[in-house]
């Protein structure tokens, strides 16, 4: 009996040990004692990734790699001993005596090692939940939590570019991190394809086949690669390129949605693709690939060739060019490319011709991938063209708001058509090559004009005018982005434009801040109209309770904000900071706020649809400048009709921007105790939790847009349906597929139905409950201007219910509270 009992105890102990041993193997670390032996593995702490031995399809060789643990594996992201397999199943991965992570075969020979000299005793390797395998060593430095990373798999990439990896290029040392393909599906050793980031000039990703360029992403414009039109919307927030302006840059990405499982993988045949785990259907889907069409292959149609996958044959010559070798070209061998038919004017002049003829011109190619090897110039949009014309070796130019002016000399290679997205490219041609088409265009234009009513001619001119203004906007963007590129240099800019006014001067100008001169009251204080001694009219904002900053900080902030200039922003002229008064001086806008027009029974008639659209577009552009293109990344936080001022021509100017900054909010996204803003415009996450981001401005913009279209106030309108807010009403009409019912009856809709509907849809998209569902402002611009085909379907907006009557008073109180000065003050004291 007793014996049996003992056996039983021993047996259970044995079970316990076995369990313990297996448990250890399931951990996420490898140490000298906790090694893994084929077929053992470790799993990252969150269970997402697994590291272990595997054999690729078609071989019995053993490799150590990392792959998805919870879902079927698409591929092995990372392989340690890719060049040196263990030939049988005797492999062991452990920490060697010198502190390196090693793989040994059955004969205890090291087949692979992290091979770092700095690794000490007690080193350990850990598989992180990002899929990164790191080698950690003990550190005496307590600040680093006892360990430092001495080696990581993410810096020794294989064929997969995972979230948080950094594709680094250092031009100073000429060191590049590259992704390299497998040799074949059954051989992980380094194959012929590689991917690198080339930050020279304008950063771009290249995929090489040996030393031959196989695919390129197109230039990086600060948000997307302009040669990948799919990036327009999907990846907008994921990718970033960090450039230290000193020759080192890296590309990285991180999906905002943590649960989004996706990565970039290069097959052994050189195809780069993006698989994505579709949770709904439990399978891998390919979202994007570099082999979607033959035109993806670099230089498919040779130099000066043009690739259009929708045409047959796919290759043609650029306009004004003809095949270099007609016979080969007709056989479908396009590699020889094309040559120019007529010499350019400047070339003829060089030849010594006295009759050089008329000036060269440009043929415009829309939605294309720009050629390779762009040269960057600091020229603005209009000058970009002039600069190209003035240099005989300039063959084409293009302007992208994010990149600036690009031009090309020599061959134009890898130009292809996109269906949407892409860039507008201007190819230089001799005048004679351009004439034919222009005549045709004139004929079409005449036909259109004849066939159209006078009304639409007017509309056309109004449209042209607004387009022209749009052009000037991009000019300003260019200014901003070239400024970015110039990096440091802005610090040296002379900062004298900001005027420091005397308090008494401003008191005199505003009749001592008399109520008669008061223009309005904003979230940060009252605004007064003033007239300086020299007769100049100004608007003076008296910051209530001042800010928590010191004087110098305040002035510094003002200097910076005074540099933020855009035609859709009200200009800050100066400031004053004396005693406890802090005053901001703006240019005066005689037309006052948009609310004065929009909600005025008479004046609103001045705002026809064209004007309203122009206002919507202008607000977008101003906001984009604040969010993205100014150096400061300003979140407005109090966007509303009364903060949109109108200039003489009824162009919108955003006012009150940067005020939140002066009060100390500097993070891109932050939690704040001080909820400033106006009830009815505030995004739910901001109103309720004090979380603000660019997306909370987008929400306010959505409300604003719907107000402009409908001519109704979101907070104070009493309409048919008392229980609905403006957002609720818009949503109701949307669901009834009757959004035009929302439109201000003062607008004559005729001919603009599609545009108006699109705007309302964008408004609803912006006002969605969840910030991540709302588009960014740059996407909004593309949507409003119909550059995105097929808008997403909006979800129900936030705040669709209207407060009941009893609640209305409390909501007024809330409004008061949110903008009340003491709230601001109390919180500031708490800082
Ligand atoms: C492995 O190879 C076989 C035969 O070549 C093929 O049918 C199978 O799909 C391959 N498996 C994977 C995972 O590639
Ligand atoms: C380890 O690195 C040294 C130089 O740092 C090099 O000479 C040696 O070949 C490397 N060993 C392995 C196994 O890679
Ligand atoms: C130190 O590391 C442990 C475990 O890795 C972690 O829980 C802890 O928060 C870290 N402490 C600091 C100060 O980083
Ligand atoms: C890559 O280059 C090799 C050798 O130049 C060539 O044989 C092969 O076809 C190329 N692959 C692709 C996909 O272009
Ligand atoms: C295509 O043209 C190039 C250059 O003209 C030539 O070298 C090559 O042999 C041709 N290829 C084929 C398949 O004819
Ligand atoms: C002009 O020069 C080009 C080469 O630069 C030559 O091919 C062409 O024949 C010349 N034309 C005349 C009219 O001299
Ligand atoms: C014309 O363009 C070429 C090519 O970029 C450049 O080397 C040259 O300096 C330019 N010439 C002038 C006058 O700007």
UniProtKB/TrEMBL annotation:
Class of enzymatic activity (EC top level): transferase
Entry EC number(s): 2.7.11.1
One cellular component term from this protein's GO annotations in UniProt: plasma membrane
Compositionally biased residues, Low complexity: 800-812
Keywords (A to Z) from UniProt: ATP-binding, Cell membrane, Disulfide bond, Glycoprotein, Kinase, Membrane, Nucleotide-binding, Receptor, Repeat, Serine/threonine-protein kinase, Signal, Transferase, Transmembrane, Transmembrane helix
UniProt main location, coarse: membrane
BP GO terms, sorted: recognition of pollen
Sites where the protein binds ATP: 541
Signal sequence region: 1-26
Superkingdom of origin: Eukaryota
Keyword Disulfide bond: yes
Membrane protein topology class: Single-pass type I membrane protein
Pfam family, one: S_locus_glycop
InterPro entries, alphabetized: Bulb-type_lectin_dom, Bulb-type_lectin_dom_sf, Kinase-like_dom_sf, Pan_app, Prot_kinase_dom, Protein_kinase_ATP_BS, S-locus_recpt_kinase_C, S_locus_glycoprot_dom
Protein kinase domain residues: 513-789
Record field: transmembrane: 442-463
Region feature Disordered, mapped onto this chain: 792-817
Residue ranges of domain Apple in the record: 346-430
Gene Ontology MF annotations: ATP binding; protein serine/threonine kinase activity
Listed PROSITE patterns: BULB_LECTIN, PAN, PROTEIN_KINASE_ATP, PROTEIN_KINASE_DOM, PROTEIN_KINASE_ST
Name by which UniProt lists this protein: Receptor-like serine/threonine-protein kinase
Source organism of the structure: Rhodamnia argentea
Lineage: Eukaryota, Viridiplantae, Streptophyta, Embryophyta, Tracheophyta
